[in-house]
Amino acid sequence: MRISFLGPPGSGKGTQAERLSKEFGIPHIATGDILRDTIRKDTSLGKKVKAYLGMGRLVPDDIITELILEKIDKAEDFLIDGFPRTLAQAERLEKTAPIGILLFFQVSEATIVSRLAQRRICPSCGRVYNLTSDPPIIAGVCDRCGRSLIVREDDRETTVKRRLEVYRGETLPLIEYYERKGTLRYLDAEGDPDTVYEKIKRIVCGDDNSEV
Ligand code: AP5
Fold this sequence. Notes:
By secondary structure, this protein is α/β, with parallel strands linked by helices. It has helices at 13-24, 31-40, 44-55, 61-72, 87-96, 109-118, 157-171, 173-181, 193-204; strands spanning 2-6, 28-30, 78-81, 101-106, 119-121, 128-130, 184-188. A hairpin with a 6-residue loop joins strand 5 and strand 6. One of its GO terms (biological process) is AMP salvage.
């Protein structure tokens, strides 16, 4: 089972990937988390990556491809969220480990903006919250490790705007690429997390034909 989640920022890829990975025991490769780990290491690569994320731009293909393919080499099955995001990345992935399902998360821009404005993360364990749909038990504090929650650096309004522009320019063209390959599936990701998850399971288990 090789699955990739594609969609705009805040469409729920990370939230749903974590659930699916847990229930089916598929290794989850979270591209954004890998990059944020790289930043924390504070190497010259980490500094470079930080600059791209801070600007809301994509990390260059050669850097991200190397980081991701290293993980994929070790996994027969995988669930990856956030890769590929450019045609060059897609072509490279197809050569190394062709994916079986590319699930395209569809949400309105209003939903994206609202979800990202409400997102809070734990700087220590990385747990993701939402002030409306998934709040912590104690306001502002991580349920798992007790640390104070923060706003993700790239969730500030101007950076979100830039990330959306980059998504439209560089990532949306992948839809056509995967349509041609016959592996694309559309997902209405507007509902609450449980509803969306049920739809994903139906698609992944082959009980739903939400394809092109
Ligand atoms: P990354 O961390 O992957 O960011 P992203 O793709 O922009 O996606 P997000 O993490 O913002 O959102 P998500 O879709 O995972 O939503 P989530 O589940 O958190 O990448 C960050 C950066 O790294 C990129 O901008 C780029 O610079 C770089 N990068 C990454 N991959 C790269 C690549 N391949 N090539 C080059 N550069 C790359 O949900 C969002 C919020 O909504 C949360 O608060 C959540 O609790 C809530 N929520 C989720 N689902 C629902 C729901 N159904 N209803 C209500 N609330 C919900």
